[in-house]
Known about the structure:
The complex is a heterodimer. By secondary structure, chain A is of the alpha+beta class.
Amino acid sequence: MAQMLGLFREEEAESAANATEALEQAGYSNENFEILTGSPYPEGAFGEREVKHKLYVFPFMGALLGFSVAMLVTGATQAAYPLVVGGKPILSLPAMTIIAYEGTMLGAILFTVLGIFFESRLPNPNAGIYDPRITAGYIGITLTVADERLNAVEQLLRRAGAADVIVKR
Amino acid sequence: MHRNGHRHIPPVATVHEFTEDMVSRHAATGPRYRRAMLILGALFLLGVAGFVARALQDGFDDRLPWGYFAATVAYLMTTAGTAPLIVIGMRAVKAHWHRPLARIGELYGASTVLILAMFIPLLFLIPSAVNRRTLYFQSDGTGVPGTLGRIPGAPQVYDLVLLAALVAAGVGLLWVSSRADRAVVRDHKGQSPGNWRGLLRQWKVHKVGLGLLGATYFLAAIGFISLYSIDFSMALVPGWRDAIYPAFQSISGLQGGLATVLVTMYLLRKYGHFEQYIHMEHFWAPSKILLALCLLWFYFGWSTLIIYWYGRQPVERDVLQLLMFGPYEWFFYGAFLLCFVAPFTTLLWNSVRKSTTGPALAAAFILVGNLFDKLRLYAGSWSVPNEQINFHGLEGVPLVHYPDLLDVLMVVGGISGALFLFLWMARRTPVISLWEMSEGLRLRVVRPFLRTRLTVIGKSE
C-alpha cells in the first residue's frame, strides 16, 4: 500500500472536482480519499461527503460539568453553614447563579479547546502525505492505494488534470 | 471615484497574488514597526517600574493609590479585551466586510493575558464579601476560626475564574484562527510540516470551533465586565446601587472594542500600506454600528443619571457628586463629550461615514473618552475610605485624587503593554487573515451592470 497525493492548480479547481468523480467511478468511495486545501471552500464544492464531527458535544459536556461543580460548591457551602439571611431559603438559587454561570463558561471554553484538538486530530505524528504547495493555493486529493493499482490511479489523476502526483510508500 | 461621481470598486486581487503579497510583507519588518515596538516596550517597562514603585511605596493596604491602575484594567478590558467581540459578531452574521478586520480583533484577544496579569494584584485590594453587601452572598462573618463564610473566596475567586475563562477563550480563538495562516508562513519558509494540512475535516472543525469559542468569549467578556464593574467599583461606594451600570459598562465595552478595531485598521491601512485590501467599505459598514453604540452609550448613561437625579436622596446626590459633578467632573464631561457628543456629531453625516478618516476619527474620540470614563469611575470609587464600606451612604464626598507620576506611568505602561503585545503577536501570525480573505476573494467578483459595475458575492449557505 502507498499514499498518493494528486495536486491541482487553484485555477483548475474544476479538475479536482472531476477527479473525485473519476475516483468514485474507479471504485474508490467518497470515504477513501481526502481533500486538502489552503483556504476553505464552500461545503460540497468537490462533491465530497459531509464531514461528520462531534465538536458540539465537547462544550456541552464542559458546560454541564462546570455547572455541576459550581452548583455543588455553592450548595455545599451553604449547607455546611446553614444561616438564614433575610428570610431567604438556605439554598437560594439566585445567589448561586453567578458562580454557576462562571463554572459553565469555564467548562465550556476549556472543553471546546480540547474538542478542537481532538476533532482536528491534533497533534498527529502520523499525519499523511503533504506538500507545501497546498498552502500556495493548490488543491490536493490524497488516498491510500494498493501497489498493483498505483499506475492506474496516477494516470486517472493526471488525466483529470493533476499538475503533479506524489507517491509515498 | 467612478466617472459620474459614483463609488469606484477597487480591483480584486487573486488569491495567489494576495497570499504571496501578505507572506512577503509578513516576512519583512520595517524600521517604523521596529521603532514602534521599541517605544511601546520601553513604555511598558516604565509602567512595570511604576507598579513596583507603587507597591513598595504604598503597599496593598490602602485602595486610594491604586485607583488609576484599576481604571487602566477596566480601560483595557473595554477596548482591547472587547475588540474580538466585533469580529465574533460580524462573523456570526456572515458580514463579508469583516474579513480584513478579523485578525486585528483576534490579535487583541492576546491582551487578555496582560489584563489577567494586571488584575491579580487588584484582588488584594478589594475587601472580601464577608460582612458587607455584595452580589454574591451576604456572608455571616462570624469571625469564629474554622467556620466558613457562606461562600469562601467571594468575590475574588469568582472574578478570577471568569477572567481565566476569558483568557482561555481569547488565546484559544487566536490560536485556532491563525493555525492555517501559520501553516502558510511555515510552508513558505520551507519548515517541516506541522499538524495542519488543510483537510476538509480540519476546516470544518476550524469553522465550528471558531463559532463556539466566539460565543463563549462573548459570554465570558460581558460577564467579566459586569462583575468587574460591580465588585471593583460599585460595591466600594456605599449608596451606589445601580442595576443599569453593568450593562452600561458592557455597552461601553462594545463601543470601545469597535473603536479599537477601527483605529488599528486605519493605522494599518495608512502606515502598513494595506490600501489594496482595506477599503472604504470596511470603515463605512462598521461606522453605522458605531453610531448606534454612541446612542446606546448616551441612553444607558442618561438612565443612570436620571434615576439618581430624580431620587434626590442625600445618598443619591453624593453618588452623583462623586461620579459625575464633583471631584471628577472634568473626567465625566470629557467622557460625555468624547464618547457621545463628538463621535455622534461626526458619524451623523453619511459623507463622513463613507470615508476612511471619518469613522477612524470618531473611533479615536471614543478611545480617549472611554479612558476618561474609566478614570472617573475607578479613581472616584477607589477614593472612598474602606471604613465606609458598610455605611448606608457616603460620609461626605471624597476629595479629588490627582494622578501622580507613578499613576501616569502605570496608565501609559498598561496601554502600551497591550499595544506591544498586539505588535508582537502580529509578527507571529499575519495581521490580515489569509484564509478568511482568500475565501472571500474566491467568492467575490466584479461584474458590469448597465453603466456601472457591481460586486457579486457568493454565499454558500
